[in-house]
Here is the input.
Amino acid sequence: MKIFQSAAILLLFSFMAVPLYASAASAGTVRVILNDKQVALSKDVIVRNNRTYLPLRSLSENMGFKVRYEAASHTVSLARPETDIILALNRPDVTVNGVAKTNPDAPFVRNGTTYVPLRFIATATKANIEWNKKANEIAVKDQAFIHYADTKADYWVSFESGKVFISQDGKIRELTGANVKPLEQGSIETHYFGDRSLLLTVDDEHGAHMTIFHNRYQFLVKDGAVIKKSYYTYSGNYAIADFQKDKSNQSYLFDGNVLQLIDRQGRLSEAYDLNAITGETGSFVIDYVDPEFALVRPARNLQLIYVDLMDKSSEVLYRKLLTEEEQKLWESVDEAGDAYFVSTLLKLEKREGNTLYLRYRSPATEQTVHVEYRIQ
Here is the structure.
């Protein structure tokens, strides 16, 4: 979660250096389209001295800037990969990538909201902009980033290049060896093992043409360097939010077949070949991982399999928990990837002690059924 230290801490809006004007009557209704998506403005656009100003807070999460407010100097610093800007409120002083400049249209604060002129922001960020006077609309093409901040660092992923960046000491640097494929959307998650190691995960899950596409990149980082990475991809009707209700309490790397555990100190532990253990072929998706077991699904049919990580055995759970009639109905399905069929499958609800509580929708009665599986 990103934490803002002041109402005046606001993120930057990107524009090409062109003059932009809006009439006082229409300024408040200006629409801003950033990378083909409309930005919801928390405050109206303001026109001052024939210059158009935008409220920056509304744009903060969209632009991927880390922001810091310096109360003593009344400045706001905005940083992201390859761009570092320091703005002085109500003064013409500004610094762009270490170079001092003058901004005659200074930012200002009104009712706790900081506004910045488009002309200056355009020059500073080198974005492309089109002003549609008839539609009262500003269309912007800017570099797109995922930005994630936790209590220890800030992270960015460039949608265009796939490069991953990190900032732990105020300086942004590329995390070498942590590139991903170009993205259109995505999210970042971190898990720390003390102060020296972390697991960085970049997820891209989206739907298109009635299919869910999921790409996951994992990077095990120690002392600022990637020591191992994995990549997993899936397409079908398996949605993370539908099947992974509880977060795994065991950290791991996964490439679609090999599941490798990571211990509490951030060290690589035992690796498990799921094809060899289950007798399945092809790739898998993972619902849940515990130090003792894993719940996995072959991508070909998504039926839940219990994998014992202690003795490397496995059990197909529907054959254990469903009635004989229900088993036959499930096994008769021609399209195992059908969205409706996938919605009926066994799902973990919770674990209490050595008991797993699961539910499914019966193919015989269409009713939700709750079952229990005892860990041996």
